[in-house]
Design a protein that fits this description.
CATH topology: Cytochrome Bc1 Complex, Chain D, domain 2
CATH architecture: Orthogonal Bundle
Strand content: under 5%
Number of domains: 1
Number of strands: 0
Shape: globular
Bound molecules: heme C
Largest sheet: none
Number of helices: 5
Length: about 150
């Protein structure tokens, strides 16, 4: 199910772990998305699913000001197109948590993320889907997270 090459993944795990020693008590992600779709690296050509297209609207409104319209980050927030946010390290629960409770600064130097009370519950799934599809298009895919 998780087709993993331990040898190739180990250095990445070590990097990620070094980044993450402080936080991220998230339980191991349940990988519900096992698709290994073929992806190109040209995110301009990504074929988003309808759910992701919907999520993009909510993302642009509520998240892009900090995480960037292209998810490459901004002066005040980190990029989603980044190895530390692969779904094995930041699973879908971490999105719910960040939106509902905010998150204290731990991976970066941008300060805390305040909660986003304006995001409707029904939009959260779409936002996550949009993030995951764009990540995957950039080769950010599930990697098991171990401490
Ligand atoms: C005001 C700026 C700002 C906005 C708006 C914002 N974020 Fe963030 N977010 C941040 C910062 C800063 C961090 C990094 C905190 C750290 O790890 O140091 C972050 C981190 C996160 C994390 C990682 C949490 C973790 O467990 O490490 C998630 C998930 C997240 N944001 C989701 C979202 C989503 C979804 C939206 C839109 C609904 C959003 N953010 C809007 C600033 C923002």
């Amino acid at each position: 199910m998780l087709k993993m090459n331990k040898r190739a993944v180990l250095p990445i795990i070590m990097m990620v772990t070094a980044f993450a020693l402080v936080a991220c008590e998230a339980p191991p992600s349940t990988t519900k998305d096992e698709t290994t779709k073929n992806t190109t690296d040209t995110s301009g050509e990504v074929q988003f699913t309808p759910l992701a297209v919907q999520g993009k609207i909510a993302y642009d409104k509520n998240c892009s000001s900090c995480h960037g319209s292209d998810m490459m980050g901004s002066q005040i927030g980190p990029p989603w197109i980044h190895e530390i946010y692969n779904p094995g390290h930041h699973n879908d629960m971490s999105f719910y948590r960040a939106i509902k409770q905010g998150t204290v600064q731990h991976h970066w130097q941008f300060g805390d993320m305040p909660p986003r009370p304006n995001v409707k519950d029904e939009d959260i799934g779409g936002i996550i889907q949009y993030v995951r599809e764009l990540q995957e298009a950039h080769g950010i895919v599930y990697k098991q997270h171990r401490m």
